[in-house]
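Side project, low priority. Logging it here so it doesn't get lost.
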Amino acid sequence: MRFRKESPIILPMNKYYALLLLIFSSTSYANSEAKSLTGRLGLGFTQQIATIGDAKIPAISAKYYLSRRTAFSVGTGFDTKSGSSTVAVGSKFFNNLHVESNLFFYAGAGLAYVSHKGSKIQGSLFIGSEFFFDKVPSVGFSFEAGVRGDSINGSFAIKTIADSIVTGGMHFYF
């Protein structure tokens, strides 16, 4: 009795799997190319510029990518409610640590001036992510977490900060 080393049924399946592997590896290589926003300006909003008490200050912001790895943003938010008016102006620097086709993971630092029942300066150190959808590649959604230092009336306090995708930010890149 002779035994075959390969079954005729297994041989075509191996060729089929090899073909699928080749197709998927070539498409994943194309998708692994990192997105570059170098020289592009994003306009949108963020709630990650400054805080008052336990509330965030929504801000209109602009974000500009200096290179594939670095970006700079400025933002301003205000509320003219009498007796409790608020103004915040801030800027942030971003350094992309990990870049994928539709995702940036970054670390950064920010500085903001806040006027609300007195003036204060807030500094922040954070990590975060900005992600994009394939079908809408010019819109970036961001969220962050880190620490914020707050000086008010001669005292200094440090607190943790975190934003979710829902309360983070969004920019449209031209």
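Brief comment: Confidence is low (pLDDT under 50) at residues 7-11, 19-32.
Revisit when time allows.
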